[in-house]
Amino acid sequence: MNGEIVKIAITTNHDDIGEFTDRHFYQDIYRLKLNYVVKRGLTIKTTTKEGTEQGRVPDVSVIDRTWWRAERKAYAALESPIQLAVEVVSTNWEDDYVDKLDEYERLGIAEYWIIDYLAIGKREYLGNPKIPTVFVFSLNNEGKYQDTQFKDNEQIVSPTFPELVLTADRLLLA
User: Fold this and answer.
1) Is 28 left (phi over 0), alpha (psi -120 to 50) or beta?
2) Which of 31, 33, 37, 114 has its CA 20 to 30 A from that of 8?
3) pLDDT digits (tens, 9 = 90+) for 42-69
4) Any long-range contacts for 117-122 (C-beta under 8 Å, 24+ apart)?
5) Backbone angles phi, psi at 18, to 5 degrees
6) In the predicted model, is pLDDT for residue 34 greater than 70?
7) Considering the domain boundaries, does residue 7 fall inside one?
8) CATH classification of the domain holding 115
């Protein structure tokens, strides 16, 4: 916060879900010959509503392969929008649902997933009773996110991965 690096400890379950997600993305990239790479631990530069620059590290990042290869010598945080950012919700869930959502939308990240496997977000997001949910946010023509929620055995629909075969419960229980 305020320019300080904040390290959030993640659980093994959190990490497993991130890994499970990136492996499914890689399978589709390989199978469909999509022009993407998948990275974990990649820092992207965002700006708060107040104009403060900061770095965000999505749990999973999907990036255009051509752009990625063109930036091979870059050491700093990526400044161009990536294709897709995935956040697996932790105890700092408000960052994922509020701050990152706003920053990623303003940056122009085409697709943003929130995976709330513990159902720890607010009831207004998850319902009552709270149910583990996968949210997929996609930028519309006005540059605003439209969200779709996936629960239980619902098939996740992704604009970036149109042939993805993955249900919410399979991902949430990874």
Assistant:
1) alpha
2) 37
3) 888 888 888 888 889 999 999 999 988 8
4) 117/13, 117/14, 117/17, 117/88, 117/89, 117/171, 117/172, 117/173, 118/89, 120/89, 120/91, 120/93, 121/89, 121/93, 121/96, 121/97, 122/97
5) -60, -45
6) yes
7) no
8) 3.90.1570.10
Mean pLDDT over 118-122 rounds to 92
Quick check: is 145 in a domain?
yes
Give 145's Cβ-side CA count (13 Å radius).
25
Question: Can you tell me which residue has the tokens 């879900």?
Answer: 17
User: Which tokens go with 123?
Assistant: 């009831």
Domains contained in the chain, number: 1
- Answer whether residue 102 is part of any domain: yes
Instruction: Give the pair of three-digit tokens for residue 13.
Output: 């379950």
- For residue 127, give its domain range: 12-172
Inter-residue contact 43 to 78 (CB < 8 Å): yes
CB–CB of 112/145 below 8 Å? Answer: yes
Predicted TM-score (pTM) of this structure: 0.90
Question: To which residue do tokens 């779709």 refer?
Answer: 148
| Plot region of 105 (φ>0 → left; ψ -120 to 50 → alpha; else → beta) | alpha
Which of 38, 59, 41, 78 is closest to 160 using CA atoms? 38
Residue 119 lies in a domain: yes
